[in-house]
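In full, the data.
>
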Amino acid sequence: MNKNILLTILMIAFGFSGLAQRFQGGLLGGFNGTQVEGDTYKGYNKPGILAGIWVQTDLAPAVFSGMELKFSEKGARNRINPKDPKKYIMRLNYIDIPVFLGFRTSDYISVIGGISAGYLVSSAEYNEDGRFPPEDRKPFNNFDVQPFLGFRFDFLEKLTLDLRLAYSVLPVRGKPDNDLWYWRQNQFNNVISTAIYYEIGR
């Protein structure tokens, strides 16, 4: 993550202290389980971290909305086995800005849904020989758009567990000119994430 992005995140984080009382905000951190639809592999085999900040406000007693700014690692990985010994790893790092609407179904459980816009800050692909050389690299699209659906569990006063599923509606990379051993169709991010949300102040 470059210095400008880090500075922006820190400025917004410190800005939470000046928000009106009707807003809540804080930090978040967790993990992604990811795969890429359109490659030749299946399963959420590529782990990644996610970290950032969040803010939300109540629209009604049982309804709230909010947004986040976070760094999120996505991609794909081949789980090597005797039938498929080829190594393949795709690493995609995004800055995501999700916007969501939530509904409280009880004092402790909420259902959330929304859409996330992502900007690709770095990408890399690897095989058993290391990182793909420049002549074998195929560019990814800079922007990603992912609708998502999930659940939240308020298990402590200032801590919330967030579980969600997100899927790209725009390709992160188009179909190759010719089928490749690791890539045959338009590619889309498919992400299951788990994160802890910590509220700063109240």
